[in-house]
Design goal:
By secondary structure, this protein is α+β, with helices and mostly antiparallel strands. It is about 45% helix and about 15% strand. It has 17 helices and 13 strands. A 9-stranded antiparallel sheet has the order 1-3-2-13-12-11-10-9-8, sandwiched between helices. It has a two-stranded antiparallel ribbon with strand order 4-7. A hairpin with a 3-residue loop joins strand 2 (about 70-75) and strand 3 (about 80-90). Residues about 1-45 have low confidence and may be disordered.
Length: about 475
């Protein structure tokens, strides 16, 4: 979540019985159909009922939250994929299927952590090595690899945002992005940031002598059978995602940033992400138990639970959850592991906004709860973040009104009004900077709010100048 948005704030359902041909809904091969055709045993009937409940929940979620395309699955260590549902259309207008490409955001961090731990097992590095031992030019090179894995290397969220998701204005390879990176936080203190995983990508390239996408493919993707997954923008065939403009999804298709693979720019499909979840549970021995055990346990405590090596560790009704969400501008992903039950849930969506993050983040947990016979606990929107764009829109309208008043019928004591309008313009202009972020970050993640902010700044600034000019007359 973007912390500066709180500072900025200070100034129905469609039927779940949609026809598959109309909505692009598909089911996993072998799952019971929606008619609930009678099975012989009570257990099978219960399974069929659960399948129907899961389908209805996914369809209702997509409709309620206006998600253009959604894919979800439940994976079992012994039985494989036990539920699968895709609904809606991709950014090109084609029905979403289990082979539709999605962007996984920070789920990529779990993949990077797996690769790094594999290199450690092979003796290419140790987790307590300072990064500078392998990447001498790295900023904050005294941070250890373990600290980068646990977000305790001293990099802030703003440090990461300053060099991440720059595809549309300044795409960069890992070396170029690393040269731009600065460390402004306190080493040893947990602060979630993509900066550490950018550095881990450089670490992987240094110790292997290969490009990060190639290492990821050879050490993780190919062994897990994930042939349709890549961190190389040249190989990706990704339909547009969707950002929200005033509550409505609008297609967004920026170029993928070549440096973003280690922390947030991996393209995959539902079918491949099912394989990945299975590998993280232990299917096929693709990922050794030593790596899984090390990564999937809490190493540091955070305000929202534990954090392992690339994984968040939380609890729900007695179940220990190992999971990670991922968000890019226009995309959302979630891999939820329940190791004690030998099960997992994966979710992919081609739409994202910060205000809807709580609702999107709750979907995987709700599907797990339904699949285990419990009631879901859906989350709503973040009310503060939901109010940002409308609030700035009001500020813009007031600024335009003040400008019109100053031009047509300026008030008496125009200098005082000019001073007040100038203060408003300055406060609006300083909001992102005071929180440590640039306007690019706001424009990428909240385009409607950014547009409203720019209009508001311009309107109040012009109103100030107009009032000053009229006061002299």
């Amino acid at each position: 979540m973007l912390p500066f948005l709180a500072l900025a704030a200070a100034s129905s359902l469609l039927s779940v019985g949609l026809l598959a041909g109309a909505s692009g809904v598909t089911d996993a091969p072998g799952t019971a159909d929606a008619s609930g055709t009678a099975d012989a045993s009570g257990r099978d009937r219960a399974t069929s009922a659960t399948q129907e409940q899961l389908r209805e929940y996914v369809d209702a979620f997509a409709a309620e939250h206006d998600v253009p395309g959604l894919a979800a699955a439940v994976v079992d260590l012994d039985d494989g994929v036990t539920f699968e549902r895709t609904t809606g259309r991709d950014g090109d207008g084609d029905p979403v299927t289990r082979t539709t490409p999605f962007l996984v955001g920070s789920v990529a961090k779990t993949m990077t952590a797996t690769v790094v731990l594999g290199l450690a097992e092979d003796g290419a590095l140790t987790l307590d090595d300072p990064v500078a031992d392998h990447v001498p030019s790295a900023p904050g090179g005294d941070a250890t690899i373990r600290e980068l894995l646990t977000h305790t290397g001293g990099f802030t969220a703003a440090d990461g945002l300053a060099v991440s998701d720059r595809g549309e204005d300044a795409p960069a390879d890992l070396g170029t992005a690393l040269a731009r990176l600065e460390r402004t936080g306190e080493e040893g203190t947990f602060e979630y940031s993509s900066a550490g995983y950018l550095m881990l990508g450089a670490e992987v390239e240094s110790v292997t002598g290969q490009a990060y996408p190639d290492v990821l493919r050879e050490r993780l993707l190919e062994p897990a059978g994930m042939a349709d997954t890549t961190a190389d923008p040249r190989e990706a065939d990704l339909p547009p995602g969707h950002r929200l403009w005033w509550g409505r999804p609008v297609a967004y298709d920026p170029p993928l940033d070549p440096s973003a693979g280690p922390y947030g720019s991996v393209v995959t499909t539902l079918a491949n992400l099912e394989r990945y979840a299975g590998a993280q549970l232990g299917t096929g021995g693709t990922i050794p138990a030593t790596i899984r055990d090390e990564a999937q346990q809490a190493h540091v405590e955070t305000p929202s639970g534990g954090y392992g090596l690339g994984w968040r560790i939380t609890e729900d009704d007695g179940d220990d959850l190992v999971h990670h969400t991922g968000a890019n501008p226009g995309w959302f992903a979630h891999v939820l592991l329940i190791p004690d039950r030998g099960s997992a849930v994966v979710v992919l969506a081609n739409s994202f906004s910060e205000a809807r993050a709580p609702a999107l983040g709750s979907l995987a947990t709700d599907l797990h709860r339904i699949s285990t016979g419990r009631d879901p606990r859906p989350a709503g929107y973040d009310p503060l973040l939901r109010s940002i764009a409308p609030g700035l829109g009001v500020a813009a309208l007031l600024g335009v009104g003040m400008l019109a008043l100053a031009a047509i019928r300026p008030p008496r004591r125009s200098r005082r009004y000019a001073a007040a309008a100038g203060v408003v313009a300055v406060v609006l202009a300083l909001m992102p900077m005071l929180a440590g972020y640039d306007l690019h970050t706001l424009r990428v993640w909240l385009p409607d709010a950014a547009t409203a902010l720019l209009v508001a700044i311009a309107a109040w600034a012009l109103a100030t100048l107009t009032l000053l000019v009229r006061s002299r007359r």
